[in-house]
Specification:
Layout (H helix, E strand, L loop, with lengths): L2 E2 L19 E4 L4 H7 L7 H9 L4 H8 L3 H4 L9 H14 L3 E5 L3 H16 L5 E3 L12 H9 L4 E5 L6 H10 L3 E4 L13 E3 L15 H19 L14 H10 L7 H13 L5 H10 L7 H18 L4 H7 L3 H39 L6 E6 L6 H12 L3 E6 L7 E6 L6 H10 L5 E5 L2 E6 L4 H12 L3 H6 L2 E4 L1 E2 L7 H8 L13 E14 L3 E8 L2 E7 L6 H8 L1 E12 L6 E11 L1
Parallel strand pairs: 2-13, 3-4, 3-5, 5-6, 6-7, 8-9, 14-15, 17-19
Antiparallel strand pairs: 1-14, 9-10, 10-12, 11-12, 15-16, 15-18, 16-17, 18-19
Helix pairs in contact: 1-2, 5-9, 6-9, 6-10, 6-14, 7-8, 9-10, 10-11, 10-13, 12-15, 13-15, 14-15, 15-16
C-alpha cells in the first residue's frame, strides 16, 4: 500500500492550509525518466529509485552513493595547498622529538581532530600536548595570549585544528615570537592567506582540492594519511610499523556528523566506514561515555549525532572545554570512565539550563509575534542566560516558529557585554545581516555564515538591534515564506510500514546534511492512545484500514502539534520511519514531525 509522491502542481486538499506546526506540505514531483534510470541501482525498487531521484542523484552517481569506499573517493593529499609541506614539518617534529602542542576548538569536530592527532603521535611513541580555549574567557580560536603562553611553556610547534585560519592577529603574534604554527582548518576564509609554517584548509582561496565540504576531522584524517605516505616514501617507521589510521575513522565519522558536514563525496565513505569502526568499541572514551550514559551499542548516525555529540559538547558549553578531547584520546579505561561521568553530569546541567532558557525565550517569542504577527525575526534576551546554550535555544526557536532566531544573554557572572547566537532558515543569510549590523555600529561585533551567526552588544543596544533586524528582514519575505515548505517524499499506509521497508530505506544511508532522511505522509488516519512520555514527548497510535502504526512526537506537549494530536479524530501525519528498540522491542514507529487535522 505504498503510494509514490504524486505528480501535482498543488498540495493535497488536506494540506492546502498551514499545518499545526505552521508548515506547508509539498509532495515531491519525481522525474519519471530519472526514476527509470535509477531502478537498476536499487534492484528495481520504484520507491528507492524515487528517493534517490529526490536527492538529486544521477544514474552514474548511484553506485558510489550507495556503496561509498575510501579506495574510490579518498582525495589525493597533495591536492590540498600546503598539505605536503605540513606533513613534512610534523613528521620532522615527530622524528626530532620536538615539543608539539595541538590547539583545538572546543566542539566535537575540534575534539575528534585533536584526539586523532594524539593517537597518531602515540603510535610513533610521542606525546602531543593539548590546549583548548575556554569559550567564555577566551572566545573562539587562538589568541595572541594563548600562543605566548604555549611559547613560554616550551612549545616548539603548534598545530591548530578546526580553527586558526582566520586568526590573523594571533598568527602574526606567533610569527613575531618565533612559534611555528601549522593550521589545519575547514572554515571559510576571506582575504589572503596569513603567515604560517603551513596552512591546510580546503576552503582557502588557492586550494584546488575540491574538498571544501570536509569537516576538520576529515581534513585531519587526510593529513595523517599524508604523513604516513611521506614516511613510507622515506623508508621511515616506528618499531611497530607505520600507524594504522583506519581505526581512527570512528573519530573522523563522529566529527563529520556532529559538525553537520554535507554527506557527499568522501564524507559518505568516512561516515559509512567510521560507523562500522565505532561499532567495534575500540575507542575507550566513546565506550565509557556510552556506558555511563546508558546508550548501549554505538552504530548509527543517531547514536553519534544525537546521543554522543551533545554529551561531548557539554564540556565546552558549560564546563571544562578540555574534557571531550581528553576522553577521545585516552586508552585508560579508568580515566575514560571518570571523564565520561563528568561530561554526562555537565550534559544534565546543560539540559536543565537549556530547558529554563527555552521556556523563557519561547514566551518572549510568542508575545512578540502576538504584538506583530508579521515579524521576520525572533530576538529573545535575558540576564543570566548562559552563552553556552543560547545557540541550541536559538535553533529550537527557529524550528518552532520557522523564522530566523537570535538568543542573547548577559550578566550574572557572565560579564556586562551581552553575547548572542542565531540560527536561520533557508534563504535568509543571518551571518551577513549580523555582520552588516556590526558594520553600521548597531552592535559591537558579529558575523557568521548563512545559517548561523554570533554577536556581541551592550544590553542597552537591544531595542535598536531588534528594530534594525526587523527592518532588514523585510527584504526576505519571500524566503521566509518558502521556509514554511516541508518536502515529503511519499505517502505510506500504516500497514505498509514494515521492518523490511525500514531496512530498505536504511540502505540508502547514511543520512544527514545534503542527504536528508526520507519523510513520509500518513494520510487520513485515526489517532488514538495519545499519552505523554517523559515531560514533553507524546506517544500514540495511527490507524486506518491497512493496519496500525506506533508513533512518537518529540517535544510536542504544550505545542500546537501536541494540541492537534490530543484532539484526536481524522488526521494526516508527516514523519520519518524508524525502528524502535526501546526496552528490547524491535518494531517500526513514525517519528512524527508535523500534523494536519482534517
Amino acid at each position: 500500500m505504498m503510494q509514490p509522491a504524486r505528480k501535482a502542481t498543488s498540495p493535497p486538499p488536506e494540506t492546502a492550509a498551514l499545518s499545526a506546526g505552521g508548515r506547508r506540505w509539498r509532495l515531491h514531483q519525481a522525474d519519471p525518466r530519472k526514476v527509470q534510470s535509477l531502478l537498476p541501482a536499487v534492484g528495481g525498487s520504484d520507491l528507492l529509485a524515487r528517493l534517490l531521484e529526490a536527492r538529486g542523484l544521477e544514474a552514474a552517481e548511484a553506485a558510489s552513493y550507495l556503496a561509498p569506499t575510501l579506495r574510490e573517493l579518498f582525495p589525493d593529499p597533495s591536492s590540498f595547498a600546503d598539505m605536503d609541506k605540513a606533513a613534512g614539518i610534523v613528521l620532522g617534529s615527530i622524528l626530532d622529538g620536538r615539543k608539539v602542542v595541538v590547539f583545538a576548538d572546543y566542539d566535537v569536530d575540534g575534539g575528534t581532530s585533536s584526539a586523532t592527532l594524539a593517537r597518531y603521535f602515540r603510535a610513533w611513541g610521542r606525546d602531543l600536548g593539548l590546549y583548548v580555549p575556554d569559550r567564555l574567557e577566551e572566545g573562539y580560536g587562538p589568541s595572541p595570549e594563548a600562543f605566548r603562553y604555549l611559547k613560554a611553556q616550551g612549545a616548539e610547534l603548534v598545530i591548530t585544528v578546526d580553527c586558526g585560519a582566520a586568526a590573523i592577529r594571533s598568527l602574526d603574534e606567533a610569527d613575531t615570537i618565533g612559534l611555528p604554527i601549522v593550521v589545519i582548518d575547514h572554515h571559510l576564509m576571506s582575504g589572503g592567506v596569513p603567515k604560517t609554517a603551513a596552512l591546510v584548509n580546503p576552503n582557502r582561496p588557492d586550494c584546488n582540492s575540491g574538498q571544501g565540504h570536509l569537516a576538520a576531522a576529515g581534513v585531519v584524517f587526510v593529513f595523517v594519511a599524508a604523513i604516513n605516505r611521506l614516511a613510507r616514501e622515506r623508508g621511515i617507521a616506528p618499531p611497530a610499523g607505520l600507524p594504522d589510521i583506519m581505526p581512527l575513522l570512528d573519530l573522523c565519522a563522529l566529527g563529520t556528523l556532529c559538525d553537520m558536514a554535507p554527506l557527499h563525496g568522501v564524507n559518505r565513505a568516512f561516515v559509512r566506514q567510521g560507523l562500522a569502526m565505532m561499532a567495534r568499541d575500540q575507542n575507550a572514551g566513546l565506550r565509557a561515555l556510552a556506558d555511563v550514559s546508558g546508550i548501549g551499542k554505538i552504530e548509527t548516525v543517531y547514536h553519534a549525532t544525537f546521543l554522543l555529540g551533545p554529551r561531548l559538547n557539554a564540556g565546552g558549553r558549560v564546563g571544562d572545554p578540555w574534557l571531550a578531547a581528553k576522553l577521545l584520546a585516552t586508552d585508560d579505561r579508568a580515566e575514560a570512565i571518570e571523564l565520561a561521568e563528568r561530561l554526562h553530569g555537565l550534559n544534565e546541567e546543560r539540559k536543565a539550563l537549556e530547558a529554563a532558557i527555552l521556556d523563557a525565550a519561547t514566551a518572549q517569542a510568542e508575545r512578540a509575534l502576538a504584538e506583530n504577527p508579521a515579524r521576520g525575526v525572533i530576538i529573545a534576551a535575558g540576564e543570566g542566560w548562559h552563552p553556552g546554550v543560547i545557540g541550541i535555544v536559538a535553533g529550537r526557536l527557529k524550528d518552532r516558529f520557522h523564522l530566523p532566531s537570535i538568543v542573547i544573554g548577559w550578566g550574572d557572572g557572565l560579564g556586562p557585554v551581552a553575547k548572542g547566537s542565531g540560527r536561520s532558515v533557508k534563504g535568509v543569510n543571518l551571518g551577513a545581516a549580523i555582520s552588516e549590523a556590526a558594520r553600521q555600529g548597531v552592535i559591537l561585533s558579529g558575523g557568521g555564515h548563512a545559517m548561523a551567526g554570533g554577536l556581541s552588544l551592550e544590553p542597552h543596544q537591544l531595542a535598536a538591534f531588534d528594530a534594525w533586524m526587523l527592518d532588514h528582514m523585510d527584504a526576505f519575505a519571500a524566503e521566509r515564506d518558502a521556509a514554511l515548505d516541508m518536502d515529503i517524499d511519499a505517502v505510506v499506509a500504516p500497514g505498509a510500514a514494515t521492518p523490511q521497508l525500514v531496512a530498505a530505506i536504511a540502505s540508502l544511508g547514511p543520512f544527514g546534511v545534503g542527504a536528508p532522511e526520507p519523510v513520509f505522509m500518513l494520510r487520513d488516519v485515526h489517532v488514538t492512545g495519545v499519552r505523554r512520555v517523559g515531560t514533553q514527548h507524546l506517544r500514540f497510535t495511527a490507524e486506518d484500514a491497512s493496519g496500525r502504526l506506533e508513533c512518537i512526537c518529540w517535544r510536542a506537549e504544550g505545542t500546537p502539534i501536541g494540541d492537534a494530536l490530543r484532539q484526536g479524530g481524522r488526521i494526516s501525519l508527516v514523519g520519518r520511519l524508524k525502528t524502535d528498540n526501546w526496552n528490547g522491542r524491535d518494531r517500526v514507529q513514525l517519528e512524527t514531525l508535523d500534523v494536519t487535522r482534517l
